[in-house]
Amino acid sequence: MSGFALTRRRALKTGGALAALIAAGLLPRDAFAAWNQAAFETKGVAESLRALGLAQPAASDQVQLVMSDVAENGAVVPVQIVSRAPNTTKIGLMVERNPNTLSAVFDIGAGMLPEIATRVRLQETSNVVAFVVADGKVLTATRLVSVTLGGCAVSS
Q1: At a CB cut-off of 8 Å and minimum separation 6, what does 104 contact?
Q2: Which residue(s) pair with 90 in the sheet?
Q3: Are 134 and 85 in contact (CB under 8 A)?
């Protein structure tokens, strides 16, 4: 048991030291993922893609958007995006009629399986657009999803 306590103690000390470095701002900014706040505040598919610095999209059967056509509760809608395009470097998700169109962007590294599964909020019935960046091209798949109970209601 003493070996476990020693390992636990060492882990707690290391974690505490790391937290102190983060709190003090002593870790380089490159240690954190890049955040493109402007892209996530956009109000349309074309504007979102421009904010991400991406080219004009083209519909493609190499992008598979897996989700139900009807969402009973727009607050939690499961979605899966699969890319069959070689050299996929980015996968993203946009909801046309949400207050902010861009919902998610995932960087896909070399050797990673180019597919993601997540959940998204839908304010109302809308087109959901999945995009993939592969070999410098932007490929998309779109699906109209009907929402019976909205998930992005803004209280006043």
Answers
A1: 92, 93, 116, 118, 120
A2: 107, 133
A3: yes
Q: Is pTM beyond 0.90 here? A: no
- Report helix, strand or coil for 114: coil
Span 145-154, pLDDT tens digits: 999 876 565 5
Residue 117: beta bridge partners? 80
Q: Of 98, 42, 91, nearest to 66 (Cα)?
A: 91
- Residue closest to 108 by CA, chosen among 128, 88, 82: 88
**How much helix, strand and coil, in percent to the nearest 5, is found in the chain?**
25, 35, 40
What is the C-alpha to C-alpha distance for residues 17 and 28, in angstroms, rounded to an integer? Answer: 15
Tell me the C-alpha distance between 105 and 95, whole Å.
12
> Distance (Å, rounded) from C-alpha 40 to C-alpha 21?
29
DSSP code at position 51: H
pLDDT digits (tens, 9 = 90+) for 16-66: 777 776 666 666 555 555 678 888 899 999 999 999 999 889 999 999 999
